[in-house]
Amino acid sequence: MDLQRIDTQRTYRELLELITTLALPPGEPLNEQLLAGRLNTTVTAVQEALKLLAHDGLVTVTARHGIYVAEANAADLAELSELRLELEGLAARLAAQRATADDLAVLDALCREQEAFARDEPQRLFDLDHRFHQAIAAAAHNRYLAKTLEQFFGLSRRLWFLALPWLGSLPGAVGVHVALVEAIRARDADRAERLMHAHVEGFYAEARAALEEDRS
Amino acid sequence: MTVMKNHEALVLGIDTGGTYTDGVLLEYYSRRVLATHKSLTTRRDFALGIGAVIDAIHIEDPSAVRMVSVSTTLATNAIAEGKGKRVALLLIGYDPELIANFKLGARFATPTYYFVRGGHDVYGREKEPLDLAGLLDTVNRVKGQVDAIAISSYFSPLNPEHENRAYEAVRRVTDLPIVLGNQLSTRLGSVERATTAALNASLLAVLQQFIIAVQRAMERRHIDAPLMVVRGDGTLMSAEFAARTPVETIHSGPAASAIGARFLTRLDDALVVDVGGTTTDFALVNGGQVRVGEEGARVGGYKTAVQAADLLSIAAGGDSHITLSRDNKRLEVGPERVMPLAYLAHEYPEVAQRLHTLSRRSWVQAAPEWLEYWLLLREPDGDSLRNDQERALVALLAEGPQPVPEIVSRLGVLHIAQIGAGELLRQEIIGRAGLTPTDLLHIEGRAGLWDATAAREAWKTFARFQFKEPDELRRQVWERLAENITYAAVSFLSGKQLPPPAHPEDRDMGRWFFGNSLQPAHPHLETEIRLRPHLVGIGAPAGALLQDVAAALHSDLILPKHHEVANAIGAVAGSVMVAEEILVYPHLSLQGVDVLGYFVQTSDGRELFEEEEAALAYARALSQERALGAAIRAGADNPQVIVEDISDGLDTHRIRARAVGNPRLEKP
C-alpha cells in the first residue's frame, strides 16, 4: 500500500470502510466518476482502489455489466468460515508457541481497553475484537498467515454489520479474549486453538442465523 | 499556436502560499515563461485555488505538460498559526526532571507529551528496558483526543530498536498515523528530533489533503504528469515522499522564491526578501546557491532537525492585522493575519454599507473594535459544535459577518475574550477580518482587486479614533513595517538581535545605532547600514513595502519581471535531490572502556566491523548506492552523488550521500 499513490491509499481506506459498514451495500453498482466526486478524490485513485478491493473479494468486476459491491450470501459465508476457522486456530496455536513479551503486552493492553468501556457500544466492541484477532495473527509471526487473515477481516467485518440487527451485544467475547491471552501466556497451544475455534465458530453461527433471518 | 520542438518540455510550477496561489507555465530548457496566473488560496478546499490557477493559466495542450511541481508555505503557516493536527508525543528514555528543570517541554511543539521508560545511550546500548505496557496504556488513554502519534526515543539514530518496537505495538491498538524520530533525522539532538517528529505528525493530514487536491485539479485539466513537491532547501521530492515527511516542506516557499529569484535575475549574490500575505521571508543567495543552514531549521519558534535553506521568517505580511495595543496607545501590525476589510466588503455589500455608516459617526461610537469582523467560513460538519456558545456564535454568523461589539452584545458577554472561539478558528469554521496593509494598498491605488472605498472609510474611522490624519497614520504603518523588515534583514544577515528596550531612555548603543541608521537624528553622528549584495524583492506587495527598506540599507531594490510569481518559477527551477545518511560509531565493551569494533547503522539494520576504516568505506559505498537508486526512483535524470563525512564529535560519523539531478522530463 505504501507504494501506491497518496490519493489511491486514502481512497482505498475510505471505500473499504464504506463497503464493510454497508454504506455501499452488497450488489450496489459502483460508478467511478460518482465515487470520485463523493470522496473528493481523483478518478485514477478510484480505479486503482477498486482493483485492490476486487482482489480483496469485496468488489466484483464484470466484463460487460460494470463494477459492483460483491454479494454476501450463505454459501460464501460457509466457505469463508471453514477456512477462517482453521487459519485462526492455527494462528492461536502458533501465537502460543511464539508470542514474545511485546506481543503479550499488546494483547494485555487490548484486554484492558475492552474492560474499560460500556457493553452497549457494539461497533466499538467489534472493532476491538478485530484488533484482537489481528494482534494474535501478528503474534503467530508468520507474515503470509497474517496477510491471508487480513484479507478475511474485511469480508467478515461486513458480515458482522449485516448480522448486527439480529445480534445482541458481544458480552461473551470479553471473557474469551482474556482466556485466550492466558492460554497464550501459558504457552498452551492446544487450549489456545480450542478457545479460538469456539470463538470463531460461535460468531459464524450467529452470522449464519442472522443472514437466514434476513432472507426470510 | 505554439509549435513544440522535440527538445522542448512544458512544466507547470505552482506556489500555494498561506494567502495567494501563483502558477507559471514554463518551457524548461529555454526557461521561457509562457503564462502566469495568480489567485487567492482557498484554505478550506485547496483544490479551488489550485484549480483556479490550473484552469485559468493558459495551456494549449495540457497533455504536453511533463511535470507539475508545487511549493507551499502551508506547513510553515500551519505551524506558525498553530493549525496543525493534535499530536501525542511519546518520549522514550527522556528525563522528565531534566525537561522540567530546563523548561524544554515548550520546545516539543505539542502540549501533550508523555514520558516512557526505555531508551539507549550515546553508544547505542540499551540504558533501560522499554516499558511497553506503560506506553500502550498511555496510547489507549489519549488516542481519542489526538489525530496522530509521534515517537522519539533517546539516541534512536544510533539504535532505533525501541522506536521500532513501539511502532509495531502501537499500530495494533490504533489506526492513527505514527511518526518515528529516527526516520526523520540522524542528528543526535534529542529535543530537536522529538520536535521534528511531533511537527511531522501534526502536518500529515494537512499535506495529504493538499496533494490529493492538486492531483484532482490536474486530472480535471487532463494533465497526466509526475507531481513533485519542493523541499525546504529548494530541491524537489516526489509527492509520495512529501506526504510521508511533510515536515521537510517547511520553508519550501522561501527556498523556492530564492531559487526563483536567482533564476530570474541571474544574480549570484543577493538578499532575497519575499513579502507574502502572512509572512515576510528572507533568504541569501551566495555564489549562485541558496545558503543552507547547518543547524536544523527553525519554524514557529521551534528548533527542528530538518535541513533547510538558511532563512528567517517573520509574521509580518500584506495581511497582517493593523490594530492598537491594549492601552490604545501603540499601533501594532501583526503578527496575526486576517482577511482584509477591502476583500470582506467586496464579498459582502452589507459590510461595505456598515463601514460607510461607521465612518460618519463620532469617535466615541467608532471604536476600533467595530473594524474587526468575524464571519462564517463554512458550515460545521454534523454536530461537531461542542457547546451552546459555539452554536449561538455560528448561528449568529450565519446571518452574515458581524463586527465584534455586535457579537459581544448578541451573545450576552462582556468582552470578546469570553467567547471560546479558539476551536472554531482552528478548524477554519469561522474567520476574522480587519484592517491590513493590503487595505492600505487599495487606498493608495496600488492594488485594485477589491473594495477600495470601504478600505478608505474604515481607515478614516481608525485614524479619527486616534485623533490622527489618515495619511499620516498610513505612513506610520509603512514605516513600522519597513522598520520591522529592515530590522529582520539585519538580524538575519548578522545573526544578532537587539535586546528588548530595558528602559525608554536606555543606554544601549546597538539600539541607538540601529535607530539612527534608519532615521538620522543625531546632529553630529551619521550612521549607516549598507547591504553588500543586491536586495531582490519577491511577492506582489514587495514593490510597495521594500523601497524604504532598500533605501535604509543603501542598496538597490531589484524587482525582476514576473517577481509576483517567482515562487512558482522556483518550484520548477529546483533539482531533484535525495540524501541518505548512515551513522558509524564505536561498539564499546560493557565497562565502556574497550572498543570492540564499529557499528554501521542504517534505518533498517546494523552491521559490525572490526576496523573503523572498513566501516567508513562500507558506509560510504552503501549510502552512495542507496542515494543514487532513490534519486532515480524520485525522478532525477543522471544524478551525481557527493558523499560527506560529518563528525558529530564523540567518535560518531554521519556519512551523508546527496544525489542531485535535474528532473527527468522524457516523453511518456
Question: How would you describe this structure to a colleague?
Answer:
The complex is a heterodimer of chains A (216) and B (668). In chain A, 73% of the residues lie in helices and 4% in strands. Chain A has 216 residues and is mainly α. Chain A has 2 domains: 6-69, Orthogonal Bundle (Arc Repressor Mutant, subunit A); 74-215, GntR ligand-binding domain-like (Four Helix Bundle (Hemerythrin (Met), subunit A), Up-down Bundle), CATH 1.20.120. Chain A is built from 9 helices and 3 strands; from the N terminus they run αβααββαααααα. Chain B is α/β, with parallel strands linked by helices. Among the domains of chain B are: 87-204, Rossmann fold, CATH 3.40.50; 320-468, no CATH class; 576-663, Translation Initiation Factor IF3, CATH 3.30.110. Helices cover 35% and strands 24% of the residues of chain B. In chain B, a hairpin with a 5-residue loop joins strand 28 (636-647) and strand 29 (653-663). The interface between A and B is medium-sized, with 25 and 21 residues.
